[in-house]
Amino acid sequence: MDLPTAWNHDDKSSYLSVDESGLRVNYGLGLMAGAVRANYPISPQCKLFYFEVDIINEGENKQIGIGFCDKVVSLNGMPGWYNNSWGYHGDDGKLFCCSGSGIAFRNLKGTLYPCVGLRSQGGSIEVNFGSRKFKFAGTYAYRCW
């Protein structure tokens, strides 16, 4: 079973760059939000999937979103702004579901990919899909149950 291990260098907004490791994402210049999908979807065999995102630099306006989306969701926005997309936004602490409002992270369906979105000049995040020990390993020792 293939599980997400890194961000997909070829499946991202032009406003974002992904480092060689595939784990760090940086927001470049621009005024629009951009997102990136993981290299593999979450397996349907996983009843629970866990990953951690470290905010390296929140950037100028702190607009960073973490969530899930399917393969056809536009990457020119934040997680949760489009149908089949769900996200938590750090700038306002709100959860977004399919078009920018509503309850997120309930009844998620389809082939879902972890994704992050940034709209914050200087913003930078790093993901841990389980290649190293999780910071909250006491609670989540595995990434797929």
Description:
Residues 1-145 form the B30.2/SPRY domain. This protein has 145 residues and is mainly beta. It has one domain (7-128): Jelly Rolls (Sandwich). Helix content is 0%, strand content 34%. The protein contains no helices and ten strands. The chain has strands at 7-12, 16-18, 24-27, 34-38, 52-57, 64-69, 85-89, 95-97, 113-118, 124-128. The strands form two sheets. Strands 1-4-9-6-7-8 form a six-stranded antiparallel sheet, with no helix packed on it. Strands 2-3-10-5 form a four-stranded antiparallel sheet, with no helix packed on it. The protein is globular, with a radius of gyration of 14 Å. It starts with 6 loop residues before the first strand and ends in a 17-residue tail after the last strand. The model has no long low-confidence stretch (mean pLDDT 89).
Question: What is this entry, summarized?
Answer:
With 145 residues, the protein is mainly β.
Report how far apart the termini are: 12 Å
CATH architecture assignment = Sandwich
Low-confidence runs of at least 5 consecutive residues: none
Specify the helix fraction band. under 10%
CATH superfamily: SPRY domain
Number of helices: 0
Rg measurement, Å: 14 Å
Strand order, sheet with most strands: 1-4-9-6-7-8
Number of strands: 10
Structural class: mainly beta
- The CATH topology turns out to be Jelly Rolls
Protein name: SPRY-domain-containing protein
Organism: Gigaspora margarita
Pfam families: SPRY
InterPro entries: B30.2/SPRY, B30.2/SPRY_sf, ConA-like_dom_sf, SPRY_dom, Ubq-SigPath_Reg
